[in-house]
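Query structure, 74 C-alpha cells:
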C-alpha cells in the first residue's frame, strides 16, 4: 500500500516526542501495541516516513507514520 502522508500537526507532535525522548504507547492499524522511547523520525525513500522507537524488551522498531492508529505519552 502506498504511503499516505500525515498532517503537519501530527508530524510536529512526533518531532516533539523525539526531542524529549518521550516514552510512548503506540497502537498500529494492525492493533499491535508498542511501548518504548521515541528516538527519531526517518524518511526512507520510496517507503514513507517512520517513527523509530526503542522498546525495552523488543529492541528498536520502525513504525510507518500512516500505520499509527493512536499514540499516547507518559
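Result returned for the query:
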Amino acid at each position: 500500500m502506498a504511503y499516505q502522508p500525515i498532517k503537519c500537526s501530527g508530524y510536529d507532535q512526533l518531532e516533539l516526542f523525539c526531542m524529549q525522548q518521550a516514552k510512548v504507547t503506540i497502537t498500529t492499524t494492525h492493533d499491535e501495541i508498542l511501548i518504548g522511547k521515541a528516538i527519531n523520525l526517518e524518511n526512507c525513500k520510496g517507503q514513507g516516513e517512520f517513527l523509530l522507537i526503542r522498546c525495552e524488551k523488543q529492541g528498536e522498531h520502525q513504525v510507518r507514520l500512516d500505520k499509527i492508529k493512536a499514540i499516547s505519552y507518559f
